[in-house]
Amino acid sequence: MSASPSSSQSPSPSVSRTGVWLIGARGSVATTAVAGCAAVTAGLHPPTGMVTEAPAFADSVLPPLSSLVFGGHDTLDCPLPKRAEALAAGGVLPPGLPSAVRAELEAAEREIRPGGPLPGDTRDADELIAAFTADIRDFTHRAGLARTVVVNVASTEPIATGAALPPSSLYAAAALRAGCPYVNFTPSTGLHHPGLAGAAAAGGLPYAGRDGKTGQTLLRSVLGPMFAQRALTVRAWSGTNLLGGGDGAALADPAAAAAKNAGKERVLADTLGTTVEGQVHIDDVPALGDFKTAWDHVAFDGFLGSRMILQTIWQGCDSALAAPLVLDLARLAARAHEAGLTGPLRELGFYFKDPVGDGPSALGEQYAELIAFAGRLREGAPPRPPGTEAAAPRTAGERR
Length: 400
Description:
There is one protein chain. Strands 3-2-1-4-5-6-11 form a 7-stranded parallel sheet, sandwiched between helices. The protein has a 4-stranded mixed sheet with strand order 8-7-9-10. By secondary structure, the protein is of the alpha/beta class. The model is unreliable at 1-13, 386-392 and 396-400 (pLDDT under 50). Helix 1 packs across helix 2 (80-89) and helix 8 packs parallel to helix 10. The protein contains 12 helices and 11 strands. It comes from Streptomyces ziwulingensis. This is Inositol-3-phosphate synthase.
């Protein structure tokens, strides 16, 4: 199969290269993104799931997939080629793909640096930030990159409390110091920590997040507006998630699960215009590996109080759902930086459960904003229309 005849094709020698620095670079999502980028570039697979490969983005001057150079931080020591083989054995990657793109996986592996803080690490927050910043700058300089986008795809951490910066915020601070656009694909605090508000506002860099919308919440962002637009009264909305892998283990911690569920609840409250009964439960099922099942039970009233039920089941491979979005976001953030955009990119809310700024939560409206953003990038990114300026990121635990 051949790749689409868009920006995934090989660039001309004059096209500059763009760095993608992945926090959690040896995880399932990062490994799938690196392997997938190589596979699409080589024409081994089509860019299924990549919104930026649609015709609407053809002239938005996004960096070609073949121009992306990968590196990152991780606290694990499993090499990317070995990680890719494990994902192929688990049905996440196609059989034979790790061998076909081994050179690209090895190249990315050479650019992965130790993350932190590790047990016994005596460095304080500023020393850790300085070390992470030096790694990112060294990567950008040695590879001769035009710019580097930092993307957090690490495991979910508990909601931050107190003044101390959690690991996700240390990496976010390093991205700011290194002069890099930043994307938080996780529910972790990142730039939302109050200690980084000033630096984020003064940094003059574009950033986006948080918590990639890949399954249950994606469906909720479509169904919530449907009930509201059809004037059907939702009485209760409950859900259960069964997942394994690293995400399942991380979300077995109630504090980490609370960070994840906050975005799911926000989408319903925003699209329905009210808070309804019901909770989301997350269960770690190691046997599922990188696959997940999400079940929703919606109780609603129809005409004359007629009681009705909608049930949905979403089954999918988390990494295969997330990886194309990570590549989309890296390209969009890089182009936004090149075009001189700064601050939170509310137009990328399409990708997130808990997006920065005050944009809509309904998927259709978010998609319209994203397509309009593609047009702005095509035209050189003129200023946003009056009244649509994005707000600064909310601090951890703050809700609208």
